Amino acid sequence: MSKQGNLAVVAVGGNALIKDNKHNSFADQLGVAHETAGHIAGMVAKGWNVVVTHGNGPQVGHVVRRVELALNELPMEPMDGSGANTQGSIGYMMEQALDNVFKDKGINKEVAAVVTQTIVDPKDQAFSNPTKPIGSFMDEETAKARAKEFGWTVVEDAGRGWRRVVPSPLPKEIVEFPAIKTLAEAGIMVVCTGGGGIPVIRKEDGHLYGVAAVIDKDFGTAVLASNLEADLFIISTAVPQVYINFNKPDQKALGNITLAEAEKYLAEGHFAKGSMAPKMQAVINFLKAGGKHAIITDPAHLAEAIDGKAGTHITK
User: Fold this and answer.
1) Which of 8, 242, 268, 282 sits at a 20 to 30 Å CA gap from 179?
2) CA pair distance 155, 143, nearest whole angstrom
3) Is the pTM of this model over 0.85?
């Protein structure tokens, strides 16, 4: 693939836009997006062509909560609609933040956000075992009534109430990949694959249909990075490095490790299932699919990380 400089795919967490529960407004998130854009601009200034993906977990939660509160006034919005909703709003934030930062720094770079669909397998076992909680806590009566009305799967959540759960299938194909590739090859910074992509299935006639599910953002980004033959896959998260024996007396930060070591540490259970484990698995997927270099770090250390001075680097 011909590229304008080395190509890096950077995955920014949805939680990274929300510092805490007191700073979760749109304006707060836009401010954080501006900070993140500054760090990404540092990579561009060093000659990198960058494709940006992002999480949307908290933002989808907000949309679903609003929809549930308005059920007496407005129709229920499907999960794929909520995913598209947040891809649009976060894409707008990142487009504006990046464009403004580039102008401030004198960088001549265009930005385009692409609402992205990701194909999943309707036979994925996740559909028979939904586990991802979404939306409000409810009492049992309300939960079962909504399950009957909307076809939801609901479960009791550790004594805190009942919640809806949806499947989290593995991503198979990025529908808009040809457009993303064309834009990236033209040197345009693309913001895409939000939340791992909007989950869709492709029927035998080739038509696409949205499904009520969520895709792991880092798994979706790993598929995109592999297809783009990216030189570098970066997962930008809440910590500057990955640790083994995390929060234990013998905690150890990982600087440079191999694919084999990453697989070993993951198998030994060093990484929490709901946080670092899927990130490390996404990196492993990328490297096994032909990728050569991945980094896990926080936004503030992006520029240092690409110079080898920060972050956890995983190579073959």
Assistant:
1) 282
2) 8
3) yes
